[in-house]
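Entry 12.
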Amino acid sequence: MAFDKLGQHHEAIEALEHAVELSPYHAYAQALLGIIYQKMDMGEQAELQNRKLQEIVFPNEYAGFYFTLVAFLLGTLLGGIRTVEGNTLEVSFGSQLIIFLLFCAICWMYWRSRKMW
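Predicted 3D structure (tokens):
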């Protein structure tokens, strides 16, 4: 990041490529490398880097589904989901418990999908 802030993009690329080589699953380093590639007008490398980052964050086709479903369930629990009329969705305590259990189960499935990858 320091090399990037100083405008030394070639050095930033070298440092980030080395960081990614040492820790290939480090999403932050992968993302920064893609950004530097874009700044340097290295479109093909930036696209390849973005695909690698997607594989790390969403390792298989189910991970995105799990993440979206968990976000919806959490939004329902926290009252962020509204009806068509704009009212908050009333959720009873029993429903909250079921939603929470589903939330935990889906988080576990997401974690397993990442671990299996």
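Annotation: The chain has two domains: 2-57, 61-116. The helical segments are 2-5, 9-22, 27-39, 43-57, 61-78, 93-116.
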